[in-house]
Amino acid sequence: MESDINDDLSEIPVGHTKIKRITYRVFCRIILLYFKYHFIQMIDHGRSAIMLNKFGTLKIVKTLCTRYNPTKWIFKTVNGKVVREKVKIDINSLGGYFYFPFWESDKKYRQYRFYFTKPWKRRLWAKAKEGMDYFDYTLTKTGRNASPDYIQKIK
User: How far is residue 138's CA from residue 153's CA, in Å, rounded to a whole number?
Assistant: First the structure.
């Protein structure tokens, strides 16, 4: 994919102002490659990705589930009908921790959320089952809904 993008960039003609015009398709492929690189670094090596232009930091974190058990929705086809079902995620195999991507951003971006697609989630959970250790989000006092009492109960 990276070599394809390099080929596309080399084929862009230079205009009379010596500025290359990048098409929307090439721009999207560059952005996808950029995020793919950062996701691999976050999941496989536990690093955080600092986003440019003050967009914050992306990182993988874990939280100890003492108050709740996380759930997910699955969709099944039963007798020709699509049925959705709420299923609890098995966190006991990972010591009671739930792993997720966290976007540490400014206050103006908190209305937005960041979610992984299924292939990245599968890769994250496979790495967690192999024993990869990520940042423990439950021990930070700056986390959302974290209080000193809650942190002391976990310790």
Answer: 10
